Amino acid sequence: MSIYVGNLSYEVGENDLREVFGEYGTVKNVQVPTDRETGRPRGFAFVEMSSEAEEAAAIEGLDGAEWMGRDLKVNKAKPKEDRGSSFGGGRRGNSGGGGYSKRY
User: Fold this and answer.
1) CA 2, 82, 35: angle at the middle one, nearest 5?
2) Whose CA is closest to 62, among 1, 19, 11, 10?
3) Residues with Cβ < 8 Å from 29, sequence gap 6 or more?
4) Domain carrying residue 39
5) Using one digit for the tens of pLDDT, what is the confidence trace for 9-23?
6) Would 34 be classed as within a structural domain?
7) Is residue 96 part of a domain?
8) Which residues, 6+ apart, have CB-to-CB distance to 42 below 8 Å?
9) Looking at the 3D structure of the chain, how many domains does it have?
């Protein structure tokens, strides 16, 4: 399991997160997603610690903490949702007709 870290400054990098979370234990992995078009960080990250106890300590110690001018949102990461199965396999709204009703 990993930790979701939200409301990050766009200046935060992997090494910054390793340093801060390292105070709570061994950091196994850090991912800072970037915007596909601009390449800039998206303002959130995922951090994986080596044990559940270390993750719990990091969440307890950092959730709501102010860092680089922002109040962090730190909690257990939720599994990624499969977005392809909603809306009937990718179809949206009604099935055809151009969005208007037929009147005779």
Assistant:
1) 65
2) 19
3) 2, 46, 47, 48
4) 2-76
5) 999 999 999 999 999
6) yes
7) no
8) 33, 34, 35
9) 1
- The vertex-18 CA angle with 24 and 77, nearest 5°, equals 75
In a domain, 24, yes or no: yes
CA 51 – CA 75 distance, rounded (Å): 15
Angle at 68 between CA 65 and CA 69, to 5 degrees: 75
pLDDT tens, position by position, 37-80: 999 999 999 999 999 999 999 999 999 999 999 999 999 998 87
The amino acid occupying position 2 is S
Distance set, CA 98 to CA 30, 68, 92, 94, 104 (Å): 46, 49, 12, 9, 17
